[in-house]
Design brief:
mainly alpha; 76% helix
Amino acid sequence: MKQRSVVGVLLLSFITCGLYFLFWAYLTRSELKQYLQDESINPGLDVLLMMLCFPYACYWIFKYSKEVAAGEAKAGITPTDNSIVNLLLYIFGFGIVSMLILQAQLNEIAKKQS
């Protein structure tokens, strides 16, 4: 897993009008799939469904938050389950905040790997 600057993720998301979010979702899901060795994770399908269906995007942010918590547990970090918080942020239009919370958690996992 790769560490990414939370500020960089924020700026790239604004500069690209949200397109970076889709790239980020695919990239980080692929890394988490490999880290957790979970073949049920399908980053390409997830991104496609998120673009086509808002309810799926809400489900995705909830599910992804749970998987990141599982990644923290595997890395020996006390898992932080932000699934409800991230879901509510996403529903009320603050999905970028959810993205930043998840990236911060992923960065902690990446630190433990190196």
